[in-house]
Amino acid sequence: MHLSHPALRQPVTAADRVLQEIQRAIVEGDIAAGSKISEPELARRFDLSRAPLREALARLERCHLIERIPNAGARVVKLSTTGLLALYQLRENLEGLACKLAAEHMTDAEITEVRQLLDQHLASQRVREGESYYQEAGDLDFHYRVILGSKNSYLINILCDELYYLVRMYRVQLGMNGPRVSRAFDEHKAIINAIANRDGELADLLMRRHIAASRRNIELQLEQTGT
Amino acid sequence: MHLSHPALRQPVTAADRVLQEIQRAIVEGDIAAGSKISEPELARRFDLSRAPLREALARLERCHLIERIPNAGARVVKLSTTGLLALYQLRENLEGLACKLAAEHMTDAEITEVRQLLDQHLASQRVREGESYYQEAGDLDFHYRVILGSKNSYLINILCDELYYLVRMYRVQLGMNGPRVSRAFDEHKAIINAIANRDGELADLLMRRHIAASRRNIELQLEQTGT
DNA sequence: CACGCTAAAATTGTCGACAATATACGCCTA
DNA sequence: TAGGCGTATATTGTCGACAATTTTAGCGTG
C-alpha cells in the first residue's frame, strides 16, 4: 500500500502519454461528450498502434470518461443532471471522510504547506479577479492536498484517480465562472483550520457543506444554460 | 449512466473469462498474495495470448487485486492490517451512504425481495449451522442488494466492482468462520427494516455498526493467526 | 413505402513477433 | 570475500496482421 498514486507520476510509456492527451481532450470537450470513440481514428491521430491505445481506453473507462460495450466500442460519457447529482453525492461523503481522516493523520508540516498554498491563492486571486481557470485549478489543488492527507490509499485512489477527471469535466464544460470564487477561499480556510485543530467532525461537516454549495452552484449553471 | 454493472454480466470475451478465473484464483489464494505475476506464464496456463491477458490485468489492478509498475511487472496485492483497516474505513462510510440512499430509492418490491432473501438465509443457515462459506456468500448477497438499491451508479461501481473482491480476499484468506454468523442475520434484519421504514439515517447508522463489528471480528482473527 | 433479410464494410478482439526496458548472472577489482 | 560493472537473459511494451463480431448498405418482398 503506497500513498503516491499514478496520477502524479509522469508518463513513462506511450500508453501513459496518450492517456493524458485523451483525458485532457475529453475533459475540455475537444472530443465531444457522447461521441463515439474510434480506435483506428485515434490511433492515426496520435500516431501509435492500437495496443497502447486500448490500454489507455481501459484507464479512461476506469475514471468514467468513456463507457465501453464489448464488441461494440466505446463512447465518451454524456453529462447529465442525474449523473452530476450522483457524483457530488459521493464526493460530499468521501471528501467529508477524507477531512475527518486528514484531521487525524496530517502532519503539522503538511498543514502549514496547505495554509501557504491558500495564501498564494488569495494573493494571485486578488490580482486576477474572476479568472476562473486559476480558481478552479487552485480549488482542485486544495482538495487534492486534503485527500492525500487522509493517508487512506483506497480513498485517495477513488477521489484523485477515478472521480476527479469527471468532476473537472463537469466544471469545464459547464463554464464555472460564477460569483462563488471568493467564498470558496473562506470555506477552504475554515476547513484547514478545523483540521489544524484536529477537529475531524467539524472538518467533515464543513467539507460536506463546501461541496454541497459547489454542487448547487453548478446546478444553477445547468438550469441557466438549459439542459 | 446504466445501473446494471459489468460484474453481473456474463463473460463474452476471452479477456472476460480469464479475468474471472484469475480473480477467483487470487481471492481464494490459489495464486499467492504478494507473488509476482508472469504474463508469459499465465498466458500459457490459460492458453491465450498476452493481449487479452493484459486487458484482464488492467481490470485486476482496478479492483486492487494486483499492483503494476511500468516496465517492471505486476504483483498480487499483499494483505496487511493497515490495508484492512483502510478498506473497512471506506466500506463503513460508503455502505452507510448506500443504506441512506437505498432508504430513499428502493422500491417496495425490491425491499420485499431482500426480506425473502434473508428468510432463505435463515432457513438454510439453521440447517447447516456454522458453514461459513454459505454465510459469507449470503452476507455479500445482502450487501449487494442494498448497494444496488442506492441507485447511484458510481457508488455501485466502487463497492461492487472495485472493493468487494478485495473484501472477499481478506475474508477467505483469514478464515472467517467465527461465531458472528448468527448475529449478522439480526443486524441485516434491522437494516432492511430501517430501509423499509424509509429511515435513512438509522439505516446508515446500523450499517456502519454492522461493518465495524465485522471489521473487529476480522481483526481478532488476524491477531490470533499472528500477523 | 415499410419491413426484414443478405451481403459487404467497418470495427473490435486476438494473435505472434519485434523493440525497449528491467532483472540476473558472471566477472573483475579492491 | 564483498561490491560494482557489463553483458546475457527474461520480461514488458509496442507493432502489424488476422479472426470474430457488429454495423451499415442494398435488395427483395409484403
Automatic annotation (TrEMBL), chains A, B:
UniProt entry tagged with the keyword Transcription: yes
Organism: Arsukibacterium ikkense
Keyword Nuclease recorded: no
A Pfam family it matches: FCD
Single Gene Ontology MF annotation: DNA-binding transcription factor activity
SMART domains named among the record's database cross-references: FCD (SM00895), HTH_GNTR (SM00345)
Domain HTH gntR-type: 12-79
Protein name as annotated: GntR family transcriptional regulator
Residue ranges of the TM segments: none
Annotated keywords: DNA-binding, Transcription, Transcription regulation
